């Protein structure tokens, strides 16, 4: 059975009419990928308004780990709507908020008492984690990392590295935010081994705490365990544990930004579990709600309790619909063993990527953790010069063949995969085959 089928041009006739309407009313600053409009979606398959079907390797930018319209999520939402949609947790509380907070605190790493705050979006979770860290430590400084992405609000945009399109001409930015070096093994100096390079970057972080920011002024270090928008960069245990140790030495809170990496994406509920550390605070969102907006901050009880009543929260924070969806997602991950499935998907993908790397000179590097995998596209293996143009061409060719893909990386030259973890083996293999065809067509190899 063939799952992907594109029988019209893109956009097709119905999509073209909608695209014309969009262009007349939606600001051009809101980007789009494949030039068509969804009609329906289920599992890892998306159907557009012209009847074309696509295998989804983008997952709504990593928000659909349990798949589109999972029956358990649908049932949970319908049940919730039958009772109430919203009261505002700050006005009249509701049990789903408590139930989700309990589940999250129980799943998060750390053998200590935890509490969880529920919010709306990933950026809002990061903003609140920073607020909580500053309140607890009575310090103002925040350290993020080069190539990191944490959101598009003023503070999170400041913490984000990629200037275009996220920061260009949107300043001035928030104060007391510092950028520390983060390892990028593929682009290390040729004379350095990978282990030596990781030690070098860790030493650079130590130097950073002397030259750029006094540690006694830093409230928190915010780290993506695997950089998402930055290009799916996977650091070593040596680096992550080294930064964590320095945080502990200086009374700096360690915040793990798990917004893209969480909920079975890397084969664990939280990617930080791969690195053998226990964060003080964890931010979560994206796939936690299976497409329903919800986010959260999970952390040590004494840290989370430092803020006074009224200092945290928001009108729609931890909405009943979001809570019910998230509770269903956690059930699905457990019942369908999606952490194990993620690891199996990741192995299949990396095996294919390594095969493609041998065939295509434009693939400079392949990397990943669990089902969070990527390939870096370059103009040649010797120069390693990023090739954004070819990357965009590969993604465009994939769309024409019925595969939804995303790019990433500060150079825009990384093809990243965020397929639903419920994808079938047949759908996965067809999608990888389309990816291979797309590289071949775009590169001319």
Automatic annotation (TrEMBL):
GO terms for biological process: gamma-aminobutyric acid metabolic process. It comes from the Bacteria. Keywords: Aminotransferase, Pyridoxal phosphate, Transferase. Its cofactor is pyridoxal 5'-phosphate. It is an enzyme of class 2 (transferase). Its EC number is 2.6.1.19, 2.6.1.22. GO terms for molecular function: (S)-3-amino-2-methylpropionate transaminase activity; 4-aminobutyrate:2-oxoglutarate transaminase activity; identical protein binding; pyridoxal phosphate binding. It holds the Pfam family Aminotran_3. CDD domains: OAT_like (cd00610). The keyword Cytoplasm does not apply. Pathway: Amino-acid degradation; 4-aminobutanoate degradation. The keyword Oxidoreductase does not apply. It catalyses: 4-aminobutanoate + 2-oxoglutarate = succinate semialdehyde + L-glutamate; (S)-3-amino-2-methylpropanoate + 2-oxoglutarate = 2-methyl-3-oxopropanoate + L-glutamate. NCBIfam families: GABAtrnsam (TIGR00700), PRK06918.1 (NF005376). Belongs to the class-III pyridoxal-phosphate-dependent aminotransferase family. This is (S)-3-amino-2-methylpropionate transaminase. The lineage of its organism: Bacteria, Bacillati, Bacillota, Bacilli, Bacillales.
